[in-house]
Amino acid sequence: MDWIAFTYSGYLLLALAGTLALQSAFRIRLDWRAASIAIALSGLFFLLWDVWAVAEGHWFFGLESMLGAMIGNQPIEEIAFFIVIPLFGITVWEFFGRESKAKRRLRDD
Length: 109
Fold this sequence. Notes:
By secondary structure, the chain is mostly helical. Helices cover 70% and strands 4% of the residues. The protein has one domain (3-108). A two-stranded antiparallel ribbon has the order 1-2. Strand 1 and strand 2 form a beta hairpin. The chain is elongated and about 55 Å long.
C-alpha cells in the first residue's frame, strides 16, 4: 500500500488531534449527550446525501487517497469525516461561546 492511501485518514487524524488538543488546552468540556445527538443527526443527513449522490453519479471518491475499506458505497474515511469535523465545529463553538460569556462578564463588572 502506497503512502498516498493514508491521505484522507491522515487529515482526519490531524483534525481529531487538533480538536482534542484544543479541548485539553482550553479545558473545553462538551455536553457529550447533546454533542452525540447533534453529530448523529447531522451525520445521518449528510451520509444519506452522500450515498444518494454517489449512487446517482453526482459525486465520487478518489479511492487512491483512501485505505480502501468501504461500507456500502462509502469509504470509512467519509463516515469518520461526519464524526470528526462536526466534533471540531462543536468544540470551536463552545470555545467562542465561553470566551464571549467571559467578555460579557468583564464588561458588566
